[in-house]
Every structure is written in structure tokens, then in C-alpha cells.
Amino acid sequence: MKRLLQPFVLVVTALLAAAYAYPAARLATGPWERGALAIPFVLIWIVPALYWTGSRDDEESWLDQAAHQASYLSMAWVSFVLVLTLARDVLLVATSALQLERAHAAIAQAGVPTVLVAALLAMALGAATALRGPRVEKVAVRVPGLHRDLEGLRIVQISDLHVGRSIRRSYVERTVERARSLAPDLVALTGDMVDGPVGRLAPHVAPLAALMEGGRAFFVLGNHDCYSGAAAWISHWRQMGARVLLNEVSVLRKGAATLVVGGVVDPAYRILRPQISLEDAPGADFRLLLAHNPKLAPLGAGAGFDLQLSGHTHGGQFFPWTLAVRLVHSPHVAGLSREGSMWVYVSAGTGSWGPPVRFGTSPEITLVTLERA
Q1: What is the domain class of 135-372 according to CATH?
Q2: pTM higher than 0.90, yes or no?
Q3: Closest by alpha carbon to 296, among 312, 280, 278?
Q4: What is the 8-class DSSP label of residue 134?
Q5: Cβ-based neighbour number of residue 258 at 10 Å
Q6: pLDDT tens digits for range 190-202
Q7: Taking the domains of the chain in order of start, what are their residue ranges?
Q8: Rounded to whole angstroms, how far apart are CA atoms 163 and 350?
């Protein structure tokens, strides 16, 4: 009972109650319908209230797994229901104002089942998009005065894979197969690779070792990696062959060119705060920064990096969050943008968090190619 009275749980409960009130008032006509509509809201409440307030390292039964999946899918369905209910009300107001009586009556009568079924179809389509595996997003970054030996350098970025309840070994294997087919010179793992402890997820991330041969893979922490036990995962990634960068840089040579790869920790990492410097690599021909959160771009630009690779936003993952995320992370939401003289590329994510749903975005493996401007 004490856990349910925590401020976080009380806030979540209040927000869900407010969100429920709107479609209940607009779509339900009796107590049975209001009760049925309340079920997905209760399922959403279960995970933050009963799981997020406890230990994330506990062993999970099949019932725990089922509760999480039901909760996450309910999140997606409710999001679509809220948007479609609002759209229905806008149409009702418009047809009433324009005195379109037949259209108004049709929307009023058929609108409720249309909203519920359309939300279900959108969720199903979004789940198919999310779980079929990442597509390859090709990005050319043009750099003035790029060293000849770095022209055509191929960087594969994998970000926000979120190996856990929905993303399992088979999905990781498909990701690795597609990434290897791109013949990368360098692999950037830009955080949020896992959602759970090493003991549970090590077999599922194991295929990623194939991308770490020859010391070409670099990893930086994301916030979910920190929630999942940062110290244990740092050790595990190093054992697999990745170079874990904790506010540090690594100097590489390609032909006669010098390439610097830097990495900053996520703000969720409580041991260090994000900071980076190029004082130990003043003569680099190209400077690449890995930072999970794109809000760290001012650090990279101030230090003198040429390109920052980030993730974290998922591009909003699915509508309407694709719009909301722009208010929080603009101008670095998804795709290529600038922070001063530094390029910033934000991946829409290789996996999915929470609801295994993508609507308006697609999971991606990013192939960044350097070109001479």
C-alpha cells in the first residue's frame, strides 16, 4: 500500500484518470461500456505503479511478461483512441456548424465503433512495422576539407535497440546480419541497447559480438542502460569486444588520416556527468562524437567535433508522440541537423521501447558515409 502512495504513482494515476474521462464521456453510453473502456487504462497503470517502483532486476514469471505486454499494447491503443476521439469531435463540430445534418448524424452514429476499430487496426499495423526488423537508412555527411583517406568511410549506427521483452535474440540476429552486409569501417552503438539485467539478456545480445571484431565497435551509455545496471553492462560490453567510452576519446588511424571517436555518458549515469574534450587529440582529421541524448549537442559543438551521432527520441515512435517529441527535442529530433558547425544525426532507433509499435516512423540501422564537400 505504501508503494501506491508514492508521488510518482499518484501522478500516474491522476493522469490516466484524466485521460480516461474524455473517451469515457464521448464514446461510452452506459456503465458496462465505461467499465470495458477502463480496462486498458488499468492495464497501463499496472506497469508504472507495480513494477517501475520496485527492483528492475527481479526474475520475471510468464505472468509478469504478460502484464507488461498487455500494458504496453494498451498504451498504443489508448493513444490512438484519444486522437481519433478528438478527430471525431472536430468533425461533429464542423458538420454541425456547416449544417451538414446527414454527415453529422452518420458521424455521431458510426463514429464510436469506427474509433475503436481504427485504433485497433493502427496498433496492429504499427506492431507489424516495429517487429519486422530495421530498414537501412543511408546518410551522406559532407565535410569540407575531409582527408582523402577518410572519403567513403562507412559508419554503421545502431541505437535504442531495447533488447528486452519485445526485442529478443531473433530480432538482434536480423539486425546484425543487415549491419554486417553494409561492410562498416566503424560501428557506433549509441545507447539504450537493453532493458533488463545482464543475467537475463546476455544470450539475446550475444549476436552483436559479430560487429565488434577488430576493435571497430564503440559503445556509449543510454538512460535505459543505466536503469538496467550500468556497471554490469559496461563490463559485459567490454568482454564482448566493444570500446566503452565514458567521457573519453579514442584515436584511430586510417591510412594517413587520424580519426577521433569520442563518447559521453548519459545524464542518467550518476557516477559521472557528461563532459568531453579534444585536448588530447588536437591534430585529428575528423572528430566523431557518440552521445545518446541529442540535447548534449552543445557539448560536442563546443569541444570542436565534426559529427555527433545520437538516438533517444525514437522520432516519437508512433503518432501522436511523433508530434510531441518535436516540442521536447527540437531542433535535433530525427535525421540530420546542425549545431553550430557540427553535424548532428539522430537515429529513429533500431528497436522499440514499451509498445512494440511504430506508426509514422520505422526502426532503422543507419549507414553514415563521409564525403568530401
Answers
A1: alpha beta
A2: yes
A3: 312
A4: P
A5: 18
A6: 999 999 999 999 9
A7: 3-131, 135-372
A8: 10
